[in-house]
# Entry
Amino acid sequence: MDRADFFEQVYQVVRLIPKGRVTSYGAIAQYLGTRGSSRMVGYAMNGSHTVQPPVPAHRVVNRQGLLTGKHHFASATAMQDALEKEGIHVKDDQVQDFKTVFWDPNTELTL
DNA sequence: ATGTTGACTTGGA
DNA sequence: GTCCAAGCCAACA
# Structure
């Protein structure tokens, strides 16, 4: 943590997401201790392409497991394609077996 | 400095 | 179970 900005904190958590797993903005926000700033998590992702290493934003979806932010990627199919490449099945912008591939930082990182 | 927006979440009808 | 509305925090204009 140190003097990492809110954005950096989000980036680090997202980078900690294991391959083939996905998480939700709220989970990250809650991990940061600010559930209300769930929107900021996605907002931070907006600048994810400006930091390095690039954060796997494609592994971050909303609580429904829906690829809400896919439109913010280089291509509308970039996110889904990336997820499928990770081994995650996506149908109609909806992550299949979401609860199975769901990765909660609070739980997995054992806060 | 103030106001609005935003890749969300939860709660109530 | 589904739909509508309110809430919350931080960055951007």
About this structure: The first strand of chain A starts at residue 23 and ends at 24. The helical segments of chain A are 6-15, 25-32, 38-46, 78-86, 98-101, 105-108. Chain A has one domain: 3-100.
